[in-house]
Prior knowledge:
Layout: E1 14-21, E2 25-26, H1 36-53, E3 61-65, H2 74-81, E4 90-93, H3 99-112, E5 119-126, H4 157-168, H5 172-188, H6 190-194, H7 214-219, E6 239-249, H8 250-256, E7 260-270, H9 280-291, E8 300-303, H10 308-317, H11 336-339, H12 343-360, E9 380-387, E10 391-400
Parallel strand pairs: 3-4, 3-5, 8-9
Antiparallel strand pairs: 1-6, 1-7, 2-6, 5-6, 7-10, 9-10
Amino acid sequence: MTAPEVPVVTDDTPVVVAAARTPFGTAGHALADVEALDLAAAVLAALAERLRARGLDCVDHVVLGNCMGPGGNLARVATLAAGLGLDVPAVTVDRQCGSGQEAVHAAAALVALGRADLVLAGGVESASTAPARFARGAGAPYARAPFAPAGLPDPDMGPAAQAVADRFGIDRGRQDAYALRSHERTLSCADRVAAEIVPVGQVAADERPRRLDPRVLARLPGAFARGGSVTAGNSCGVSDGAAAVAVVPERVRAALGLPGLAILDWQAAAGDPALPGIGPVPAVRALLARSGVPPAAVEAVEITEAFAAQVLACTDALGLDPLGADADRVCAWGGAIALGHPWGASGAQLVVRLFSRLVLHPGDPAGPAGGAARDERTGYGVAMCAIGGGQGLALLARKVGP
């Protein structure tokens, strides 16, 4: 397959030139005592150190996503804690599970508009240390802020995943097979997955990936409805972690002679808050239609694996088969079902993973089934994320440079 010629990369195109993340720990376990501030600062400091070694020593802006943290401008506090300088502005954004990806979109806009030559962007979540939130005068904390106002559907994400499974006919067998695949792929790509990680204290590896017994997986009961197909085994774990990338204009990347991941375009979409898991589909469709890149030309697809049902509903709608022909395109190194889902960080982790797959390991076998055939390697990648309340994000990227 010949790579499409559109869209064109110009001197001002935003390009990811470095990416990193912390280990992802199951809430209450490996990273239970590490606050969101410290998780974020660890990644920002590591990226800044790598960039200084390459001659980039002036961070112009920091953008971080966060959902359930301590409030305030966490990005600014983490920027100071990371030692990036008193003069580096920072902002925290919240688009729920898409917060980390939204931060990358914001960084790309700053660079594309000529407002910055180096932005660090990503996301962080510490479910373990997230504060309890009380409505004024209430005697007990509430679990979360609403995704939608009174009068509209506002399901928690688990019941919403079950609703997606029911609505789109995603049966239990496919969900369990996808969950098994996520763990198997993560373990089979352990060396490449580990290379993304910045240790935090004594924690240097993801906590959740394991070898699953399909017989045990099949016996797990429905987690959100009696007889339901969405179970603890085919869902993500609630986790702690941070992820971030460094974004520069193409002219800076070219001057340094580094390979990079050009951020070509991005899109947000919204729909029925009763079915948030399907939110990325209209975003991806709009993005690819505008760019002129045909779906078949996308070599790498990363989607937040909050639930196997949600992933499969989205891939079905987009004509992808992660359990068959597209196994080496969709989350080829595994995803959040194996790693866990630190809400504010997971969207950024999608871009970290695209950078790993397309820039650091182009042409390497993607997993146990082997890599894409050489004539299918276009360098194009898509990151997409479903968001509570019925929203979705999508980002189109392509490898550039040596």
